[in-house]
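[Automated response] Your request has been received and processed.

Submitted sequence:
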Amino acid sequence: MRFEGTENYVATDDLRVAVNAAIALERPLLVKGEPGTGKTVLAIEVAKALGCELIEWHIKSTTKANQGLYEYDAVSRLRDGQMGEERAKDVKNYIKKGKLWEAFTADKRPVLLIDEIDKADIEFPNDLLQELDRMEFYVYETDETV
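Generated structure:
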């Protein structure tokens, strides 16, 4: 599996080397650059060229890193428990999987685009370093590792 560019994206030699190294090492690739230089298009074209699913996580100023892992809706579970709902007995019914969870558990390795990461809090990238480095994270509510 190698990326050589596409009909719509002409990649420089250095960029092809970086993308192919990330593919071979099965490691994340951080692409930095000025707005409008084609970072998002690169992810789209890599996914197309390699026949991979593209998972897009668009970051806003209010986005928190843990939202990429999962979100637990304790309030809904409490409300359902008070109403006697059967589903309240299983905590898994109240966990919404994030984009990293989706990417880490995909049947075939996808391309995960974390777009506009610079819009988030300054600590946002640091908050995901361990998860991206290990390619796993712990879900406290279910006592499982994804």
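Summary generated for your ticket: Strands lie at 54-58, 70-72, 95-97, 111-115, 138-139, 144-145. The helical segments are 13-25, 39-50, 66-69, 74-82, 99-104, 124-134.
If you did not submit this request, please reply to this message.
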